[in-house]
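Entry:
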Amino acid sequence: MTTAAIIVAAGRGLRAGGDTPKQWRTLAGRRVADWTIYRFRGHVDHIVFVLSPDDAAAWDEFQNSDLILAEGGVDRAGSVRNGLNALADLSVEKVLIHDVARPCVNTRIIHDVLAALDTKVAAAPGLAITDALWTGQQATVTGTQDRSALFAAQTPQGFHYAAIVGAHAAHPGGAADDVEVARAADIHVAIVQGDADNIKITRPEDFARAERIMGLNMDVRLGNGYDVHRFGNGDHVILCGVKVPHDRSLQGHSDADVGMHAVTDAIYGALAQGDIGQHFPPSDPQWKGAASEIFLRHAVELCKQMGYRISNVDCTLVCEYPKIGPHAQAMREEMSRIMGLNPDQVSIKATTSERLGFTGRNEGIAALATACLVKT
């Protein structure tokens, strides 16, 4: 199914304090909005970012990104409707609607809500209330409230696209969230387990709490990869997914893309999941001449399944010839396309071995790569 996330970021967030809307304030070195967008990358096919018309700088910044931009409405419901309309021509079947002020949402919640939509029309994360609840007036307790059937609502709230579009079209307005809109249309909403760390930044002190959560959950992994292929007869080489004219070709069981192999092994290494040979044995004839993109995509998908996101990769090609410089940008763009990254997260560079060793004798090409993964 085609999936999308709508991140609602058109509010002003006055209760959070400061002169800047909370989504644009810095949190653990990045803006709140950047963290929230980051959480959904790689988990859905499309991301709609709903912005206020007043945020001109942000419109300019994101205009040429992979985000779909939509203009905020007069209230939250209007913003969500505009976000839904932005997806109208993309055949989306599942849509997640998320508050930009929840930058600590984790991969498990996103996947659980999407999985629930396989059998339910709507699903949302909630936390069962465990604290005693009081009613009060003028700073005095006036009574208690039964908590046995109460849940604290969270986002992302997920829906079948057509169902939530219809529900919003029929709703008179004034709903607290999209679950309320769905229920007004007689849509049953399944509750999936929320997370206490999935806080919504509302008050000034919430920024410090969110930074503590991010610090506690930080899990960064590094992996390295190394690969070598010898030259044989041919008229080109495939390096990092790009066909480079040359008077010889690289030999190997697959297409012998030495750079892509090194990056793939770096990702497997960071995950402690072996190497290409373990996942795609050279003894298996089905991989004879296979495009190395198959291997890299598998490593990237495994990374997502294990709850990690690729922060960046760095690959160095070691050869006398062909010259890599004229093709490096195309290689970065192709590798970033395959991995679902921005080109500025992919480094491709080259060096010679000063005519020493097998690369110096122009007998083959070697590649070294490093991958940095971050737990989501």
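The mean pLDDT is 94.
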